[in-house]
Design a protein that fits this description.
It is a single chain. With about 600 residues, the protein is an alpha+beta fold. The chain is built from 14 helices and 26 strands. About 35% of the residues lie in helices and about 25% in strands. The strands form 7 sheets. Strands 1, 2, 3, 4, 10 and 11 form a 6-stranded mixed sheet that branches. A 5-stranded mixed sheet has the order 17-12-13-14-18. Strands 20-19-22-23 form a 4-stranded antiparallel sheet, with no helix packed on it. Strand 19 and strand 20 form a beta hairpin. Helix 12 runs antiparallel to helix 13. The longest helix is centred in the last third of the chain and has 23 residues.
C-alpha cells in the first residue's frame, strides 16, 4: 500500500504522493487539491469538513471550528452544537476526509502517511498530531517540519534539473507563513543533501492575525464596538477583512465595505496602511528572521535565496517587508500553497525507498532546548534549567551529563525533564519526570549520569545510571499530555466514527447548496433570481439520481457560484450574470 504525504495546515490541508517519477498532488472528488481545515456540525447533527464546513461557518459560526491547529496539544475543548471535541479530534476528522479522498483517487486503501507540522511545534503538539492520525486510522511514524519539506521540494527540483554533483549550493531562508503559524528556517543545500541549520517560529502568528487587525482598524475608524458584535457579525467582518487583504495582491487600493444598521460603512486599505495598523505583527516577523539567521551563525547577506511558503506569504505587504529587511527583491518561485505538500510527498517516496529519490538526504534540528531541573543559585526554593540538548542541534543527537545530590542524606534524585528556553523550569513545558534511588550520603557524594537521546520524530529517551550501585533506568518520554492506552485510543476512534458523517457526494452537495444559500442572502434583484435558478437547476439534477447528471450539474453550478462570488468580492456590477438555466440545458 502507498504512503502519502499530508500537509495538515491551520487554514487548509492537502496531500501528495510519488507517482511515475514525480510528486503528484491528490485531488478530492471535485478536483480540488486544497481542503479547508474546518469542521462543522450542521442543524441535523451531521459532521461536515472542508468546503461544506467553510460555508457553514459563514452562516452559523457557533457550530463550526477553525484554526484549531493552533491549540494542538492543549486541553481546549470545542462545543459544536452539543458535541465536544479536542483539537486532535477535529484534526482527525480533517485527516479522515483527506484519507477518503486519497483512497478514491488512488483506488486503494491508505493506512500510512508522513505528516508535516510547524517547525516550532513542541513535544505535546507533535504527539497530538500523531494521535490525530491514529484516530483517523492512519499510521504516522514520521513527522516532518513544514519548512524542511518546502526546502526539500526546491532542492529536489535543483537536483533533477541537473545532476547531483552539478546542483548549486544554496543557503535558503524558508519563510513559512500560513493562516495560523510562522516558521523561519535556515537551510543549507548541497548536492543531494538538505540540512536544516536553525529554526525559529511562532505558533500564534499567521494570516488570521492580519484579518483581525484589519477588522479592529475598521471598527476603530467607524466607531464600532467590536465586543458588542455577535459571533456571526464577527465572522462576517473578519471574512470581509480577509477578502480585502487578498485583493491587495492585485490592487493598490481596496475599499472595505460592511453593512451596519442600514448603512454601508467603509474603509480604504493599502499596503502602507496595513504596515501602519499592524506594526507589532511585522516586528514579531523581523525578530524571528533575525533569531534564525543569528542561531545559524550567519548574517542576512549570507542568505542566497528567500523561499516563500504558505498562503499568507502571498501578501504584498509581507514580500515588501522581507525585501526591505534583506535589502533586495524577493523572488516568488513556485506556488506557496503547494510547496510543503510536494515536499511531504517527496519524503514519503524517500521513506518507501523509491529508486529515483533514495539518495536524497535530509537532516533536521531540535526546535527547542531540552534540559533538567536542578537546584537554583538562591535559597528561594526555585530551581533552574540545566540544558542537556540545545535548540538547533542536528537530530538525532545524544548528550550525557553528571549530576550529584543537593541535600544531606537524600534517598532519591528527582529528574524533571523540560522543553524550552526559559531560565526557570516552570516557565517551560514539562515533558516528564522520573525518580531514581540513591544510597544515603552527604550532599554531593552520590550522583548519577543522565543521558538524553532525541530522535528525528521528537521522541526523547532518558537513560540514568548510578555512580555507586550500578543501577540503571531508561524511560521514553513522548509527551506529558494525554498519552492514551490502546483501549482508550480504540474507544475514541470508534466514537468519532459513530458520529453522523455525510457521504462524500452528500457533503459535496451540502457545500454547493450552502454556498448558494449564502450568495442568495448577499444579493438582491436579478442577482438573487440568478442564484435561485442555479439552486433549482442543481436540485432537479440531484432528484434524477443519475450520477453522471449530478456530477456534470455540480461541476457547472460550482463554477457559476464561484464566478459570482468572485464578482461580488471584486465589487463588479454583475450585469454579465444573465444566463438562464432552462429545461433545454440538461433535460430539466
Amino acid at each position: 500500500m502507498a504512503v502519502i504525504g499530508i500537509d495538515l495546515g491551520t487554514t487548509n490541508s492537502l496531500a501528495a504522493i510519488w507517482r511515475d517519477g514525480k510528486v503528484c498532488l491528490i485531488p478530492d472528488e471535485s478536483g480540488n487539491y486544497i481542503i479547508p481545515s474546518i469542521v462543522a456540525v450542521d442543524a441535523e447533527g451531521n459532521i461536515l469538513t472542508g468546503y461544506a464546513a467553510r460555508e457553514e461557518e459563514l452562516l452559523a459560526p457557533q457550530r463550526c471550528a477553525s484554526n484549531f491547529k493552533r491549540f494542538m496539544g492543549t486541553k481546549k475543548c470545542y462545543d459544536l452544537a452539543g458535541k465536544k471535541f479536542l483539537p486532535e479530534e477535529l484534526s482527525a476528522l480533517v485527516l479522515k476526509r483527506i484519507k477518503e479522498a486519497a483512497e478514491n483517487f488512488l483506488g486503494e486503501e491508505i493506512t500510512e502517511a508522513v505528516i508535516s507540522v510547524p517547525a516550532y511545534f513542541n513535544n505535546d503538539q507533535r504527539y497530538a498530531t500523531k494521535l490525530a492520525a491514529e484516530l483517523a486510522g492512519i499510521v504516522c511514524d514520521r513527522i516532518i517540519n513544514e519548512p524542511s519539506a518546502a526546502a526539500l521540494t526546491v532542492q529536489e527540483e535543483e537536483i533533477f534539473r541537473k545532476t547531483a554533483e552539478e546542483a548549486a549550493e544554496q543557503c535558503l531562508l524558508v519563510f513559512d507563513f500560513g493562516g495560523g503559524t510562522l516558521d523561519v528556517s535556515v537551510v543549507d543545500c548541497f548536492e543531494n543533501i538538505v540540512e536544516i541549520t536553525a529554526i525559529a517560529g511562532d505558533n500564534h502568528l499567521g494570516g488570521t492575525d492580519f484579518d483581525e487587525a484589519i477588522a479592529a482598524a475598521f471598527c476603530a475608524e467607524n466607531n464600532l464596538d467590536w465586543k458588542a458584535f455577535s459571533e456571526k457579525e464577527k465572522t462576517a467582518l473578519k471574512f470581509e477583512s480577509k477578502l480585502c487583504k487578498e485583493a491587495l495582491s492585485v490592487q493598490d487600493k481596496v475599499k472595505m465595505l460592511y453593512p451596519q444598521e442600514g448603512k454601508n460603512l467603509s474603509m480604504d486599505l493599502t499596503v502602507e496602511k496595513l504596515f501602519a495598523l499592524a506594526p507589532g505583527l511585522f516586528r514579531r516577523m523581523k525578530n524571528l528572521v533575525l533569531q534564525a539567521v543569528s542561531d545559524a551563525g550567519l548574517q542576512l547577506t549570507d542568505i542566497t535565496q528567500v523561499l516563500l511558503v504558505g498562503g499568507s506569504s502571498r501578501m504584498p505587504a509581507v514580500q515588501i517587508f522581507l525585501s526591505r529587511l534583506f535589502g533586495r527583491e524577493i523572488c516568488v518561485g513556485g506556488d506557496p500553497d503547494f510547496l510543503v505538500a510536494q515536499g511531504i510527498g517527496l519524503y514519503a517516496a524517500i521513506k518507501e525507498r523509491k529508486e529515483e529519490v533514495r539518495d536524497i538526504l535530509m537532516t533536521d534540528v531540535c526546535p527547542f532546548s531540552l534540559g533538567v531541573r536542578v537546584q537554583g543559585d538562591l535559597e528561594d526554593g526555585k530551581g533552574k534549567m540545566c540544558m542537556m540538548i540545545e535548540r538547533n542541534n542536528i537530530l538525532p543527537c545524544r548528550v550525557t551529563k553528571h549530576f550529584v545530590t543537593a541535600s544531606e542524606f537524600q534517598e532519591e534524585i528527582r529528574i524533571g525533564v523540560y522543553q524550552g528556553e526559559s531560565y526557570y523550569p516552570e516557565q517551560n513545558l514539562k515533558i516528564g519526570e522520573l525518580y531514581f534511588p540513591v544510597p544515603k550520603a552527604p550532599a554531593g557524594k552520590e550522583g548519577v549520569f543522565v543521558s538524553f537521546t532525541y530522535n528525528i520524530n521528537g521522541i526523547l529517551e532518558v537513560f540514568v545510571a548510578s555512580d555507586s550501585t550500578g543501577e540503571k533506568k531508561t524511560v521514553t518520554l513522548v509527551s506529558g499530555l494525554r498519552q492514551l492506552s490502546p483501549e482508550k485510543l480504540s474507544e475514541k476512534r470508534e466514537w468519532l466514527l459513530a458520529q453522523q458523517h455525510l457521504l462524500q457526494e452528500e457533503e459535496e452537495r451540502k457545500a454547493i447548496l450552502l454556498m448558494g444559500e449564502r450568495l442568495f442572502s448577499q444579493t438582491s434583484g436579478t442577482r438573487r433570481e440568478y442564484v435561485d435558478q442555479i439552486i433549482q437547476y442543481y436540485n432537479y439534477a440531484w432528484k434524477s439520481k443519475s450520477p453522471v447528471r449530478i456530477r456534470k450539474a455540480g461541476k457547472r453550478v460550482l463554477q457559476e457560484l464561484i464566478a459570482l462570488d468572485m464578482c461580488l468580492r471584486s465589487k463588479f456590477d454583475g450585469e454579465e450574470f444573465r444566463e438562464e438555466f432552462g429545461e433545454e440545458e440538461e433535460g430539466i
